[in-house]
Design a protein that fits this description.
Length: 283
């Protein structure tokens, strides 16, 4: 399977498909990521708050692939959301990952109820980390339209990506179109709705059977066709293979429209609303 690459607004390219490792326990991460790399994955999405960067690093080391052949993203811990802490926190990630730079570093959450006056300053710090070569690209995650407007107005620098929750039950159209309007790409998190109702939805099942594909493959293909970047999570080899096998079929315009019509608005969210999410871990 050849995974397409997407051109970002800073001139670099990102594989449109990869593996997300949220909720993969640290002691299983090396084995899961190794399996994914064996199956052909070349893009890993982790975060400081997932507490499994060392496992990702161990798998990368064992695989021995050329550095430029694997795309690695990590994200700033909500507790390090401070221009003075961002550099040390990325350096710690690099140590755990065994890398001298990541490909993409994101502000994980804006936390506007905690950091309304400072998240644009944290963004400015990320610009410095990119200039210092600790990360090739920089972006944000869970930024609402007004958060995007604010960081661009204060720094003049648009993020390369905004990683936001998107799947048919929660199309998140306002954040998605604001992201694209800033010239950034959408990375859609929880593309399988965290293994929830969409996988057994009758509309999805009918489209899947028409193509001889699984519901998960249909959900992923829909997002690939919209130009978004996806990294479904699985710890099982057969599902890793299944999720990657989405580049040999096409959805019709009617099928795309039928999937878009499943949007439930706010009630379709599987995660927290970024406007009110305020969790700051103790680590
Ligand atoms: P997901 O939508 O990828 O769903 C994963 C779950 O779907 C699995 O645990 C499994 O139960 C099921 N599944 C996987 N493959 C399947 C298949 N082929 N058939 C049937 N069921 C299958 O959920 P996710 O982990 O929440 O999202 C993916 C990635 O997005 C994360 O690992 C993480 O990297 C990223 N993410 C980022 C944020 C953020 O705030 N930036 C939040 C959530 C997730």
């Amino acid at each position: 399977m050849t995974v397409p690459t997407i051109k970002l607004n800073d001139g670099t390219s990102i594989p449109q498909f990869g593996l997300g490792v949220w909720q993969v326990p640290e002691d299983e991460t090396e084995q899961v990521v190794s399996q994914a790399l064996e199956v052909g994955y070349r893009h890993i999405d982790t975060a400081q708050m997932y507490q499994n960067e060392a496992g990702v690093g161990a798998a990368l080391k064992t695989a021995g692939l050329a550095r430029e052949d694997v795309y690695v993203t990590t994200k700033l811990n909500n507790s390090q959301h401070d221009p003075a802490k961002a550099k040390a926190s990325l350096e710690r990630s690099l140590l755990l990952l065994g890398l001298d730079h990541v490909d993409l570093f994101l502000i994980h959450w804006p936390l506007p109820t905690q950091y309304d006056g400072t998240y644009a300053k944290t963004w400015e710090a990320l610009v410095g980390l990119r200039e210092a070569g600790l990360t090739t690209s920089i972006g944000v995650s869970n930024f609402q339209p007004d958060h995007l407007d604010k960081i661009v107005a204060e720094t003049g620098v648009a993020p390369a990506v905004n990683q936001i929750e998107v799947h048919p039950y929660f199309a998140n159209e306002a954040a998605r179109s604001a992201t694209l309007a800033h010239g950034a790409k959408v990375e859609s998190w929880s593309p399988l709705g965290q293994g929830g109702g969409e996988l057994t939805d009758a509309v999805v099942a009918e489209i899947a059977s028409a193509h001889g594909k699984s519901p998960a493959q249909v959900l992923l293909r829909w997002q690939i066709d919209r130009g978004d970047i996806v990294f479904p999570k699985s710890v099982r080899r057969e599902r890793l293979e299944e999720n990657l096998a989405i580049f040999d079929f096409e959805l019709s315009a009617e099928q795309v429209a039928a999937l878009a019509a499943l949007d439930k608005g706010e009630s379709g969210r599987s995660g927290p609303n970024p406007d009110t999410f305020d969790w700051i871990p103790s680590f």
